[in-house]
Write a structure and sequence with these properties.
It is a single chain. The protein is α/β, with parallel strands linked by helices and about 240 residues long. It has one domain: Aldolase class I (TIM Barrel), CATH 3.20.20.70. It contains eleven helices and eight strands. Strands 1-2-3-4-5-6-7-8 form an eight-stranded parallel barrel, surrounded by seven helices.
Length: about 240
């Protein structure tokens, strides 16, 4: 399981002052230097955090690890993706006014919209992923659309983990990863993942190839520093993290 660090919250902090501190590219480079396997950015239409110029800087200067663009199907985002050709593009449905992503694609319903976009991205050599909910039934539609991977929305699992009754949600994730593996579709996961709740995923869903984590890793860095935060999450994706008492 690889760790791709989402640097959106670095950009959010910078934007709150209107200057260039903290510098997104400098932090992304540090994060790569600390051992992360990739960098994720999610440019939104309202530019609340990552801007197109941030995306340009990351893809042009981060060349030793994978880059992942997350975004909705809108012209500006797709033009930016085709211009910069990140390693991977994760297509995410967006609800106007949402605070953060909170649902996956109904792939069968939106196949007519997704399929040509996936085809175009793949023609440019960009690995494609669709943000979906933990449901093995979605895999057949993903395979028909032609996406290389899915990213499982792990928000419900993370919420259940906090309540202490996560077994049912974990089982959904496990079943979805196994269905995807059987169909030849790769598996990523992301949303509200922490160093603590990664443990069961690592143990029971080894088919997951990559996790994209930003908010909780950045929050952890406020306590321990970015170098240690990345180290802790790298241990977590290897199933070796133990929370300090």
């Amino acid at each position: 399981m690889k760790l791709s660090v989402n640097v959106n919250k670095i950009a959010l902090l910078r934007n709150s002052r209107g200057h260039d501190a903290p510098n997104v590219l400098a932090f992304a480079q540090k994060i790569v230097g600390y051992g992360a396997h990739g960098i994720t950015v999610h440019p939104r239409a309202d530019r609340r955090h990552i801007t197109p110029d941030d995306a340009r800087a990351v893809t042009r200067h981060i060349t030793t690890v994978e880059t992942n663009f997350e975004g909705d199907i809108r012209e500006e985002f797709l033009d930016l993706t085709l211009e910069l050709r990140p390693t991977q593009c994760t297509l995410v449905p967006v609800t106007p006014g949402e605070v953060t992503s909170h649902r996956g694609w109904d792939v069968a319903k939106w196949r007519f919209l997704l399929q040509p976009v996936v085809k175009r991205l793949k023609e440019e050599g960009i690995r494609t992923s669709l943000f979906v909910e933990a449901d093995p039934g979605v895999v057949a539609a993903v395979a028909e659309v032609g996406a290389d991977r899915i990213e499982i929305y792990t928000g419900p699992y993370a919420q259940a983990f906090e309540r202490g009754d996560y077994r049912a949600e974990l089982d959904k994730v496990v079943a979805t990863t196994k269905a995807a593996a059987a169909a030849g579709v790769g598996v990523n996961a992301g949303h509200d993942l922490t160093a603590e709740n990664l443990g069961p995923l690592v143990k029971e869903a080894p088919e997951i190839q990559e996790v994209s984590i930003g908010h909780y890793l950045t929050a952890h860095a406020l306590e321990v520093g970015m170098r240690q935060a990345v180290a802790d999450y790298l241990m977590a994706v290897e199933g070796r993290y133990e929370k300090a008492r």
